[in-house]
Amino acid sequence: MRKLTIAIDGPSGAGKSSLGKALARALGYQYVDSGAVYRAVGSLAVDGALPLDDSAAIAALAAESDIRLEGDPDDLRVLVNGSDVTARIRQPDASRASSIVATIPAVRDAVVGKLREMSQAGGVVMDGRDIGTKVFPRAEVKVFLEASTEVRALRRWQEERLRGRDVNVEQTRAEIEERDRRDRERSATPLVKADDAVLLDTTDQSLDQVVHRVLEIVNSRS
């Protein structure tokens, strides 16, 4: 069977990373978390004390930095200029910065180039917010996930609690709504469903159900 490119898009908390990892395991594909690359850029900006509205400086930082993803789907490590920043990029300040720097067109262009380089060999599952529209517009399989805001907030709250962050559901929902606004309103490749993507609502679906449905789509196109 030929190796496909699988693009998964959708808003925060819709289940993209869980689906992406499960598909990569099932298919023996490479898993690429595009959000981790933006988080890496955000953490670099914060640690370098760059103003988050200095678009030119942050775009240059994104272009010049060596950002790599290594490991299998369940143990994905993020390396920046040779240093392991896997834990750093999940800190609240890096998360907030990533959602801001990701709205800068030149940053998105730099990251898109890096994502394409990571996936040259094919057989890749990549999740994000513009994978099917910008990064891989010719991907053989495109999926757009959605879920209710309430369910997405609960999922993200549970993830944050597991990471040891002391937050409540209301705060998490507010953060998700703000991220949704930035994703929809940014000038560079705003979050939209690709015309040829399959829309899946995960609100009342288990991960196994969603994985099964997407594997059916993959098998029909292999």
Explain the overall architecture.
With 222 residues, the chain is of the alpha/beta class. It has one domain: P-loop containing nucleotide triphosphate hydrolases (Rossmann fold, 3-Layer(aba) Sandwich), CATH 3.40.50.300. The chain is 50% helix and 15% strand. The protein contains nine helices and eight strands. A five-stranded parallel sheet has the order 2-6-1-7-8. Strands 3-4-5 form a three-stranded antiparallel sheet, with helices on one face. A hairpin with a 6-residue loop joins strand 3 and strand 4. Helix 2 packs across helix 4, helix 3 packs parallel to helix 5 and helix 7 packs across helix 8. The longest helix has 17 residues. It is globular and about 50 Å long. The N and C termini lie close together (6 Å). The model has no long low-confidence stretch (mean pLDDT 93).
Features:
single chain, 222 residues, alpha/beta, Rossmann fold, five-stranded parallel sheet, 9 helices, globular
Short overview:
The protein has a single domain (5-221), classed as P-loop containing nucleotide triphosphate hydrolases (Rossmann fold). 50% of the residues lie in helices and 15% in strands.
